[in-house]
Amino acid sequence: MISEYEIDWNVPDNIDFFISNNQTGLSKGLYKKANFSFQVGESRQIVQSNIDTLKVMLNLDNITFMNQTHSNVTLQVNNHDQLLNCDGVFTMNKNISCAVLTADCIPMLVTDKIGSFIGCIHIGWRGLKRNIIENFFKKLSRRKKTNFKVLIGPCIGFKNYEVSEEIFHYFKDFENRFSKNKSGNYNMDIRNIACDILSNLGITDVTISTSCTYTDDFYSYRRHKTTGRFISLIWFKNDY
């Protein structure tokens, strides 16, 4: 079994979602317990076993992953089981599920009030700087902003996310989301910067996880450089 992080996100009846935590899974050692990334050094066989276990649990035929590089690229996906070079993906194909893998960055899941599409975004400070959120919703510009429904999943919290002065200067429009600390660096509230960007775009139906990946039961790159990635996943239900 793969254990689930539970959060109340009010999605349409034809949409479902899942976020893993690290209470159960097949990964061992530095990667325990439910790593879904092939790119962090764990045995491909074990990672595939975690993926296969999740597919059975959720009754999914496929999971579409992104090759995440902190870019601003968003792609529409039409065929399942692709590995796409992007940090944002969406689809209207009811046979496709969309996944984002993280270990401190923000996993953002997206749909709308009628469940006409699904999507997800991988968001770190580089993605924010490169306007990944804005680019994602620009791809969906024909839809009303007030109809979007967004989930900001577990990510590193303000108290544990220290960044340099250089990074602080990239985000002058969000100075109130930083605080200078005793080391001369800054603590960055990446979660609420993302929320501010959504608000600036006119997107207000936003559910926000308050969990911190550094302190809670998730993978955290800041806590352990060699670590796994947990999954945030969204899909269309088969019976709709």
Salient structural properties:
6-stranded mixed beta sheet; 18% helix; 3-stranded antiparallel beta sheet; alpha+beta; 5 helices; CNF1/YfiH-like putative cysteine hydrolases; 240 residues
Molecular structure report:
- This protein is of the alpha+beta class.
- It has a single domain (15-157, 204-236), classed as CNF1/YfiH-like putative cysteine hydrolases.
- 18% of the residues lie in helices and 24% in strands.
- The protein is built from five helices and 14 strands.
- The strands form four sheets. The protein has a six-stranded mixed beta sheet. Strands 1-14-6 form a three-stranded antiparallel beta sheet, with no helix packed on it.
- The longest helix is centred in the N-terminal third of the chain and has 15 residues, at 44-58.
Give the secondary structure arrangement, pairings included.
Layout: E1 15-19, H1 44-58, E2 65-66, E3 74-76, E4 83-84, E5 88-91, E6 98-102, E7 106-112, E8 118-123, H2 125-129, H3 132-138, E9 148-152, E10 162-163, H4 165-170, E11 178-180, E12 186-188, H5 190-200, E13 206-208, E14 230-236
Parallel strand pairs: 2-4, 3-5, 9-13
Antiparallel strand pairs: 1-14, 5-8, 6-14, 7-8, 7-9, 10-12, 11-12
